[in-house]
Give the backbone structure.
Amino acid sequence: MTPARRQERMITIDGPAGTGKSTTARALARELGLHYLDSGALYRTIALAARRAGIRSPDDPALASLLQRTRIELVPRAHGFRVRLGGHDVGTALREQSLGALASRLAQAAPIRARVGALLRGAAEGRPCVAEGRDMGASVFPDASLKIFLDASLEARARRRFDELRTQGAPVTLTAIRTEIAARDRRDLSRTVSPLRAAPDAVRIDNSALTPRGQVRLIAELYRRAGRLPGPWLYRIAQALLRMLFRTLGRAQLQGAEHLPPGPYLLACSHRSLIDPPFVGAMIPGGLSFLAKAELFRHPIFGGLIRRLGAIPIRRGTFDRAAVRAVLGTLQRAYPVLVFPEGTRRPEGDRRPPKGGVALLARQAGVPVVPARVCNTAHWRRVLLGRGRLGLVLGAPLRYPHASRADERFAADVMQAIRALPSEP
Ligand code: C5P
């Protein structure tokens, strides 16, 4: 296999059909000076060779000899590769709908997958690449420095494909495209060899509501940051000091850190005490940005401090568009953001419904929501006297269900996930 060092500058982008992987990968290659490696083009090239040889099924015994005699090359060029079949450029014939469907069927054959994997690894030898497909992060480039898994609702994907094909003048219907994409999803997910799946360390991005530009900016930022400690130096110092304080005086514990996704996320936390924001900020590895009442920023010293720690001002009692924009911008720069879905401090056991803000942000940013529960922060005096301990308990991330655009229901689900977490660390 490939030495890990070689893949230091390697991005993989996987996901189902119609999530904009190619557009994103191409734009990233330009922006970051990488080579765009399109694995789908290789499956399509093999499908082209198979079609010429009259092969239409992955079980056709003639497939082995076809693979043996077929010469496929990836020739490097600026920001990408040219695919050559038998010494000739394959060109635009590859993009045909019917070829995509045949490629999808043939991609189930293990010898084809092995051949494509070898071609891709050969092309990436000593060359920084952004590789795009279904199994790039999970099986072809397991040592890539950044792995992305793109997803979007079936509806959003079908609509994008439909718009794209219609502008090319193709006679298509939305229903036919939806059916075709759903069939491809089924094949990609269910095949036994390298099925479509996210690598465990992949950053999952739901782009149903993201602009292509916003998505590219987010991934570029994640790539630039891969391996580096996020956060400005002031934050890191403040975090180290506070964490030491909470640990020694409050015997603070963080539980469920394995639930924190590698990319940006919203941390939806219960709110019981004034110390919750600094406590959560101190306990989350790598730190996060948070919302604070606009009034706090007016204080000359405190205001300057929280601003430099990455706080976002929010005007309460109104829909603060600027705050929403700032949170989305922060998430796009790959920073997690802390939100209190209850809106304000509430006593334990308060059952009033949460605000919808957390759902709106999750929907618009396409990021997961990690439920979090603070333990005993309202009883910090008691804890100081040696009774109990402070805790922050995290749960499995929730994703906004794009199929059913229901902000209130999702916010209630988040709140329920918070309440279901243990009340003691
Ligand atoms: O991405 P594109 O539509 O060009 O890929 C054509 C087909 O090849 C896909 O529908 C998919 O079934 C298959 N494929 C795959 N693994 C990859 C890339 C594509 O199985 N890494």
In short: The chain is about 45% helix and 15% strand. The CA atoms of residues 211 and 272 lie 36 Å apart.
